[in-house]
Specification:
The chain is mainly beta and 438 residues long. The protein is built from 6 helices and 28 strands. Helices cover 13% and strands 41% of the residues. The strands form 6 sheets. Strands 1, 4, 5, 6, 7, 14 and 15 form a 7-stranded mixed sheet that branches. Strands 8-9-10-11-13-12 form a 6-stranded mixed sheet. Helix 1 runs parallel beside helix 2. The longest helix has 21 residues. It comes from Neoarthrinium moseri.
């Protein structure tokens, strides 16, 4: 990833007082690595599968792609990781029949990693129920205060009626998960969809109609026109015009602007030394540019990966004037809830109903500019124990119990804290802050 060196603001987290970029670029690769045991499926790929897997890993290291989602990464997973050198990599969930075959290699760290099994599978034309296929979710940190929710999926294969029904359910399951867990966020969904636009029963357009995502291939190669006739790709493919089942969908948010700038089938980059293919799928490669929002931004996250996702971004994004008029916290041994009321009367609140309430009313020209958070362990889970808010006038409001594990988040110069995002239940499990210009 390359970040703009000329357009910087004070780090939204102020960890080490570093500078955070407000724009940059990254790329994303999706590749089905044909890692089923050879006895089950040779994938019509020449050569030894372990050797091919090591070559794939060496190609990942050579090209250094920023985000790589792999599918069918089953029994040759160790061979890929043996020759790859990405700093951040998911641990395997196992070979056949124990694992999902889904893994991620990246130049960025992430939080809230989750594996989800499909609710529906079908063995109508293949053994899709043999392994716990499904999708994975991670909140990828591209830069300080810049996050993109990334989904890796591998849906049911085949074209029998049972396969179509299962695949439709698979795609809808991810779409519904996005509605719950990615509200207000930038999103990437990419992997092996086993779907084509001409297979209307799949309803692959659900990511556009339900989640507001854009298919990078459809946008950049097909000028936004949905194909009505099937076009099959050679492998390796000499053109991007043909359609594969491997796809990438994306959207930006009020916090992060995302724009796909190029799409290609990267199969010519993944060949054996004799020119043979390494997988029966054409890998897809998409380049992106990103920039921080002009009206809303966020801090880094603090706390643990528990509770239910919440975000004030959508509510705040619909407003033109954003200013905190009243702060309201509640806590005792830990932080039970956080809230604030905007100057237009809109009330924002998250967490439970326990604890002792504390409030602070801000003046008409006073802004909430920084917050200290402390975290700790409760029932073997990391939660937020304490918050202390400081305003531009030097007033403070605190709640909960301080610990030895604390950090301070300060809004960039000329900005203010106006809302929250994170995860909660009866208490606050994870928290980040939404910034807006003063």
């Amino acid at each position: 990833m390359k970040s703009s060196a000329v357009n910087v603001v004070l780090s939204t987290a102020l960890v080490g007082k570093s500078l955070a970029a407000t724009s940059g670029d990254f790329n994303a690769l999706a590749m089905n690595v044909a890692g089923l045991p050879a006895i089950f499926n040779g994938n019509e790929v020449p050569g030894d599968k372990a050797t091919n897997a090591r070559t794939i890993g060496s190609k990942f290291a050579e090209y250094g792609y920023d985000i790589i989602h792999v599918q069918e990464d089953f029994n040759y997973h160790a061979n890929i990781y043996e020759t790859d050198n990405h700093k951040y990599r998911t641990a395997t969930s196992g070979g056949v029949p124990f694992g999902s075959g889904l893994n991620t290699l990246a130049n960025f760290d992430w939080i809230d990693y989750t594996r989800v099994k499909w609710d529906t599978c079908s063995d109508a034309s293949s053994n899709d129920c043999l392994t716990p296929k499904g999708f994975t979710f991670m909140r990828l940190k591209v830069d300080d205060g810049v996050y993109v929710d990334c989904y890796n999926l591998h849906t049911d294969a085949g074209t029998e009626d049972g396969d179509e029904t299962a695949r439709n359910s698979n795609l809808a399951q991810v779409a519904n998960y996005i509605d719950i867990w990615s509200t207000g966020n930038a999103v990437l969904v990419f992997g092996d969809t086993n779907s084509r636009y001409t297979r209307t029963a799949d309803n692959i357009t659900i990511y556009s109609s339900q989640n507001g995502l854009t298919d990078a291939w459809l946008q950049l190669v097909r000028n936004g026109v949905v194909p009505t006739e099937e076009t099959l790709c050679d492998n390796p493919s000499a053109t991007s015009y043909c359609e594969t089942v491997d796809k990438l969908f994306y959207r930006g948010s009020a916090l992060v602007n995302l724009q796909a700038t190029s799409f290609e089938y990267a199969s010519p980059k993944f060949l054996q030394s004799n020119g043979s293919i390494l997988s029966d799928h054409n890998p897809i490669l998409v380049n992106f540019t990103w920039s921080s929002g002009s009206s809303l931004r966020q801090s880094n996250f603090f706390g643990g990966p528990h509770g239910t996702w919440f975000s004030d971004v959508t509510t705040l994004g619909a407003k033109t004037g954003r200013k905190a008029a009243t702060l309201s916290f509640s806590g005792a041994n830990r932080l039970d809830s956080v809230g604030l009321t905007l100057s237009d009367g809109t009330a924002l609140k998250h967490g439970g109903t326990g604890g002792t309430a504390a409030t602070l009313t801000l003046g008409s020209t006073e802004y909430w500019t920084s917050a200290q958070l402390c975290q700790g362990q409760k029932d073997s889970q990391t939660r937020i124990f304490y918050i202390k808010a400081t305003t531009s006038a030097g007033k403070t409001l605190e709640s909960g119990t301080s610990t030895s594990d604390c950090t301070t988040f300060t809004a960039p110069t000329g900005w203010q804290i106006v809302g929250y995002l994170g995860q909660d239940g009866d208490e606050i499990d994870q928290l980040a802050f939404v910034y807006a210009p003063q």
